[in-house]
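Task: sequence design from structure.
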């Protein structure tokens, strides 16, 4: 028989059912919103306990895609691995519509061998383990410091290549990822950036919070449109709306004292809606098109071809939910409160430049970003 099992980190699955017929196994499931408004992330294991002889093929049926954020008709490719093997994309996709009109999408895969498990996730997982591998691979270039605690009391950390000093201010940057916990494609891009910056041994100050919602990452939350307060809708203007924002604001203020604010920048790495393709950026509308920063973002879009959208610069000046209407996102906080240049970057969970994205592609996108950062800040 097949059994659904927890992964140690970022576990998320709901309403899972297993059905075995003569020619195939079917595992149907949905991602859980974990209390948020939108759902998207799933990550779990399917264990074959070896008590029965099972068909060799397995259908993975993702239910309720109409309530996932930006899922369209399910044109995306989740990932699978067997045991500790390499992650691979599930590209064998079959859309499915119920008689009442509800949509699902199925992928075909091999049934795990007797005594083995298959692990399935919406996109390549990226947790503390993967981050620690990056730290180890970059040989001590990055220093990790605890800067506070998360809402649940976990250690909240930031890394840096140097602290800089208030008496000798330099150009610098502050990088963020995982304001939305499940946005792992953004995390893999950041992984590529941090690796390349270390390889190039850059000396301008780079500070980075890789897990802005560390609780959500470990708990397997999607995190975007989380309830009651999305971290990226909690940046003021009058007060931080979550403890994590309070921690990050204090650290940003310390960083700002050590850099030349008008020549420095803050960058934030995200993933878009489930079925969106490519790489693109969000800027504040008020950034002048003839400014050095705007031109730099535009050139970054060109450097990222063919991964990037042709209209690389977009504006996110909307407030989706009235409950969050008055609160800043990080972009508004950087622009209106800190008066520091800011851009966020969205990288598809699955496809860019007409190719299905693998970990090496995300790291390559990150390496291109890193070279662009060097050109701006060196
Ligand atoms: Zn996001």
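Answer:
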């Amino acid at each position: 028989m097949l059994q659904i099992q927890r992964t140690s980190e970022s576990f998320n699955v709901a309403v899972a059912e297993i059905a075995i017929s003569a020619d195939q196994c079917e595992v149907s499931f949905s991602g859980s919103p974990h209390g948020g408004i939108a759902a998207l992330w799933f990550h779990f294991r399917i264990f074959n306990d070896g008590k029965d002889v099972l068909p060799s093929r397995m259908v993975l049926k993702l239910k309720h895609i109409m309530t996932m954020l930006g899922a369209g008709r399910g044109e995306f490719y989740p990932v699978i691995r067997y045991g500790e093997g390499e992650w691979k994309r599930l590209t064998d996709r079959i859309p499915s519509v119920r008689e009442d009109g509800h949509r699902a999408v199925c992928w075909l895969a091999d049934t795990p061998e007797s005594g083995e498990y298959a692990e399935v996730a919406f996109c390549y997982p990226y947790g503390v383990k993967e981050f620690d591998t990056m730290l180890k691979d970059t040989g001590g270039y990055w220093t990790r410091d605890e800067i506070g605690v998360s809402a649940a009391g976990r250690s909240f950390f930031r890394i840096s290549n140097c602290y800089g000093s208030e008496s000798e201010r330099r150009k610098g940057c502050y990088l963020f990822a995982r304001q939305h916990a499940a946005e792992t494609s953004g995390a893999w891009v950041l992984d590529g950036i941090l690796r390349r910056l270390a390889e190039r041994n850059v000396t301008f100050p780079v500070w980075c919070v890789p897990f802005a919602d560390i609780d959500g990452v470990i708990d397997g939350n999607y995190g975007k449109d989380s309830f009651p307060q999305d971290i990226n809708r909690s940046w003021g203007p009058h007060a931080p709306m979550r403890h994590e924002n309070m921690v990050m604001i204090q650290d940003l203020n310390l960083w700002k004292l050590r850099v030349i604010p008008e020549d420095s920048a803050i960058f934030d790495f995200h993933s878009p809606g489930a079925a969106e393709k490519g790489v693109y950026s969000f800027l504040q509308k008020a950034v002048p098109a003839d400014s050095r920063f705007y031109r730099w973002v535009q050139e970054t879009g060109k450097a990222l071809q063919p991964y990037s959208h042709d209209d690389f610069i977009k504006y996110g000046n909307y407030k989706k939910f009235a409950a969050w209407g008055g609160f800043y996102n990080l972009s508004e906080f950087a622009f209106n409160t800190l008066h520091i240049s800011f851009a966020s970057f969205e990288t598809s969970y699955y496809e860019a430049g007409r190719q299905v994205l693998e970990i090496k592609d995300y790291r390559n996108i990150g390496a291109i970003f890193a070279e662009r950062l060097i050109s701006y800040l060196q």
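The longest helix spans residues 359-377.
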